[in-house]
């Protein structure tokens, strides 16, 4: 996958928010059909619910850990990056397996720009000489680390070509906030090569922000404090990244996921392509990743100002910035030479698409996906997830042989080209977007998975649904439902109201989706409700995007018994079945409206915080606080006066959220009436008219013009941050405008987003009225 599974931030960043609209008792009432092993399932008549539970129980008994292990060993046996022979070989092997299991399967090809390195050089030329190795050595214990002829070298895909020389400046994580700090320290990166450590933001943000500040090149290294011996013993003794380990990865601009030459349209054979120089995705400056072994001589050679305390990593050196006030003993700046040139080739993608046709509603699709390409062998990323997906597909095929016939069509996908930039899934969605908007009811994604706690992120209309599914699957180490183990973790980490909510709210809150895996185009471009699932949190250390992410590492340090791989197959497969077989699509808008209320409250508080902080800063400037507390030998400039943020009109957002809440309540009342007396009304053919209206509800959150300055991202509830990359921004048009202090955009966006919420309310009302018509006169 593109982003590392850093469990703490991925699972709980948005999970512990106060319940503002629906009290716990109301939400508890909605759970009646999802308690483990009993009750009528949401969206099912009583008879259909009993039948469904029987098939689901059979399914959950079928996945076998040993088979998941065998899948991983086969798929990760050789490097299989985009365009490699084993990438194609894996796709053809999976195609044969899907056909063996009874799926109607094919490979769909796309043709994308995928650069591979031709020249790479990082050398220190002043005050001493050093040339970085840019290599990951073979580890004797690791039998596939020696496949050097097939391994992609260490590099960042979609870096601009360039040959640059300049002073070296350390910029911490290379975020906008870090450059604000450098500005106060009187340090400019104009004409410099910056060195940033991984973390703080997605890797592609680092060269993006560096270029905006005038840097001519960017080096990114893995600091052992958060990716090495600061986390776990170094490989092969432990799971931690060794001193020569390097994190490869794309640095493409995520404003347009997918192929850089065909933004917004499928990269088919006859697609019209941009000239590479016109692509909005390729970086503006050259960039390379290096190990902390290669970074140490560079950082050690830097002098002048000592880095702020929070900028210092885990290396046994003094971290300097490379500029600023120095001493007579250390007056010289380090200078580096950086060279990056790539082969810019069009490569073929191999997306494996496999279907089980629906028996009643074949033109409604439940889609399940995981990617199969890797930077090298990729046992953890992505094969841990792909192996589980294959095993759940095998199990579904076995159910079909036993007589199970899904109501809706099920589509299993093995995506190619995710690692460089979500290529395979994006091009497939862009090619089929009109059909998907008519047919798709859910996209369920996984990526790498490990050992520990269950995490779930996605569209909040599916929050209640996936909580119910997760209540059915037992944690293999604790023998309690996986969702309850996650609840216990949230209780242990929570404080005050957050802890109370973790105990008392019927459904655990799921996080919103930003960027980083194959759900992006489904949710943000096609408007399909999406989920992203997996396990993690008890793994220590990572070989993310290195040659050591392989079968030997995974079977020694990750989900070594593959029991959590089985649990992922059980959760994901059950979710696919339950959505595919439901008579009424089990969307729940109560959870969505509850969550939207929290988002509205957050942006209001964000503006107030900005106003208070700027007012306080201006006051301290006037009082001379910054001048008085600046060390004359290491001065920090006083910040500049800023105009106070204006008051914004949040009434459109508040009115839209209130309308959404009202319509959600009415819909839940209608569902309760239809499901009464065993839900006989759900046997009516007219229920599909309701489903057709429900399928439009996620699209109602869209503005076809997209977000301000980012036309690809059309969803107005969630989007990846323009300067976070992977990290999500909720109500992004409003939130990011406030954060970037673009007040006119913020003010206009409260109106447009408020109208989107009203439109969503209207879409739910239309489904509610059609649903009410299913209940006979005098019925409940």
List keywords for this structure.
780 residues
List strands and helices in order, with pairings:
Layout: H1 7-12, H2 24-29, H3 46-60, H4 65-75, H5 85-100, E1 104-126, E2 130-131, E3 156-157, E4 162-170, H6 176-184, E5 193-197, H7 205-212, E6 217-221, E7 249-250, E8 287-290, H8 292-301, E9 335-356, E10 361-371, H9 379-401, E11 408-415, H10 418-421, H11 423-439, E12 440-446, E13 452-458, H12 463-470, H13 482-493, H14 497-504, H15 520-524, E14 530-537, H16 551-557, H17 563-581, H18 589-623, H19 625-629, H20 651-675, H21 687-694, E15 718-720, E16 728-730, H22 732-739, H23 743-772
Parallel strand pairs: 3-7, 4-5, 5-6, 6-8, 10-11, 10-12, 12-14
Antiparallel strand pairs: 1-2, 1-9, 4-9, 9-11, 13-14, 15-16
Helix pairs in contact: 3-9, 3-17, 4-9, 9-17, 12-17, 13-14, 18-20, 18-22, 20-23, 21-23, 22-23
Strand content: 15-25%
Give the fraction of residues assigned to helices: 25-40%
Going by helix content, strand content and strand pairing, the class is alpha/beta
CA(first)-CA(last) distance:
48 Å
Main sheet characteristics: 12 strands, mixed
Q: Which spans of ≥5 residues are poorly predicted at pLDDT below 50?
A: 2-36, 327-331
Individual helix count = 23
The chain-level mean pLDDT equals 93
Q: Give the overall shape.
A: globular
The total strand number stands at: 16
**Radius of gyration, taken over Cα atoms and rounded to an integer in Å:** 26 Å
């Amino acid at each position: 996958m593109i982003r590392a599974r850093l469990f703490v931030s991925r699972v709980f960043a948005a999970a512990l928010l106060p319940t503002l609209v629906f009290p716990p008792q109301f939400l508890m009432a909605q759970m009646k059909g999802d308690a483990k092993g009993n009750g009528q399932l949401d969206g099912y008549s009583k008879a259909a619910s009993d039948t469904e539970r029987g098939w689901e129980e059979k399914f959950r008994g079928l996945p076998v850990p040993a088979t998941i292990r065998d899948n991983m060993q086969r798929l990760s046996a050789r490097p299989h990056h985009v365009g490699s022979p084993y990438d194609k070989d894996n796709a053809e092997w999976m195609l044969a397996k899907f056909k063996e299991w009874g799926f109607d399967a094919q490979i769909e090809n796309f043709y994308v720009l995928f650069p591979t390195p031709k020249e790479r050089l990082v050398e220190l030329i002043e005050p001493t000489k050093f040339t970085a190795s840019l290599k990951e050595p073979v580890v004797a214990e690791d039998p596939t680390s020696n496949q050097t002829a097939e391994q992609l070298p260490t590099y960042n895909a979609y870096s601009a070509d360039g040959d640059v020389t300049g002073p070296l400046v350390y910029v911490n994580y290379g975020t906008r906030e870090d450059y604000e700090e450098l500005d106060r320290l009187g340090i400019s990166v104009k004409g410099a090569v910056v060195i940033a450590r991984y973390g703080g933001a997605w890797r592609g943000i680092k060269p993006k922000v560096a270029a905006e500040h005038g840097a001519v090149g960017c080096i990114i290294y893995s600091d052992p404090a958060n990716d090495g011996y600061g986390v776990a013993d170094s490989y092969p003794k432990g799971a931690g990244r060794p001193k020569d380990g390097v994190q490869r990865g794309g640095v493409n601009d995520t404003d347009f996921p997918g192929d850089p030459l065909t933004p917004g349209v499928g990269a088919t054979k006859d697609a019209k392509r941009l000239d590479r120089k016109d692509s909005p995705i390729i970086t503006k400056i050259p960039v390379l990743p290096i190990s902390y072994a290669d970074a140490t001589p560079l950082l050690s050679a830097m002098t002048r100002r000592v880095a702020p305390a929070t900028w210092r990593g885990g290396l046994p050196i003094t971290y300097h910035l490379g500029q600023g006030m120095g001493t007579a003993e250390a007056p010289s700046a380090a200078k580096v030479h950086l060279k990056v040139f790539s082969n810019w080739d069009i490569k073929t993608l191999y997306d494996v698409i496999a279907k089980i046709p629906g028996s009643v509603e074949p033109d409604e699709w439940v889609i399940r996906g995981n990617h199969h390409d890797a930077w090298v062998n990729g046992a953890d990323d992505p094969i841990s997830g792909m192996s589980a997906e294959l095993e759940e597909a095998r199990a579904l095929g076995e159910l079909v042989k036993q007589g199970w016939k899904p109501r809706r069509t099920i589509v299993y996908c093995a995506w190619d080209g995710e690692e460089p930039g979500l290529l395979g899934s994006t091009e497939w969605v862009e090619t089929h977007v009109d059909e998907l908007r008519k047919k798709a009811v859910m996209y369920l994604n996984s990526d790498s998975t490990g050992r520990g706690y269950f995490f779930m992120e996605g569209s909040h209309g599916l929050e209640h649904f996936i909580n119910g599914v997760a209540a059915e699957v037992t944690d293999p180490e604790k023998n309690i439902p996986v969702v309850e183990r996650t609840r216990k973790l949230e209780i242990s980490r929570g404080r005050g109201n957050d802890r109370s909510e973790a105990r008392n709210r019927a459904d655990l809150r799921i996080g919103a989706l930003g960027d980083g895996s194959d759900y992006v185009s489904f949710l943000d471009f096609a408007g399909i409700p999406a989920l992203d699932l997996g396990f993690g949190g008890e793994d220590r250390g990572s070989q993310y995007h290195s040659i050591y992410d392989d079968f030997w590492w995974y079977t020694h340090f990750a989900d070594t018994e593959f029991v959590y791989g089985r649990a992922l197959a059980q959760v994901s497969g059950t979710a696919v079945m339950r959505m595919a077989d439901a008579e009424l699509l089990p969307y729940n808008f109560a959870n969505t409206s509850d969550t939207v209320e929290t988002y509205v409250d957050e942006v209001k508080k964000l503006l107030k915080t900005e106003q208070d902080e700027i007012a306080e800063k201006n006051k301290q400037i006037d009082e001379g606080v910054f001048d008085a507390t600046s060390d004359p030998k290491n001065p920090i400039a006083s910040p500049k006066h800023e105009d106070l943020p204006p008051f914004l009109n949040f009434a459109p957002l508040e009115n839209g959220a209130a309308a959404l809440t009202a319509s959600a309540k009415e819909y839940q009342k209608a569902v309760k009436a239809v499901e009464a007396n065993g839900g006989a009304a759900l046997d009516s053919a007219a229920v599909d008219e309701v489903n057709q209206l429900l399928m439009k509800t996620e699209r109602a959150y869209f503005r076809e013009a997209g977000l301000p300055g980012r036309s690809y991202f059309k969803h107005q509830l969630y989007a990846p941050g323009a300067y976070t990359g992977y990290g999500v921004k909720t109500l992004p048009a409003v939130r990011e405008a406030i954060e970037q202090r673009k007040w006119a955009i913020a003010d206009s966006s409260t109106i447009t987003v408020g109208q989107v919420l009203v439109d969503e309310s209207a879409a739910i009302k239309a489904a509610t009225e059609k649903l009410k018509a299913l209940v006979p006169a005098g019925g409940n």
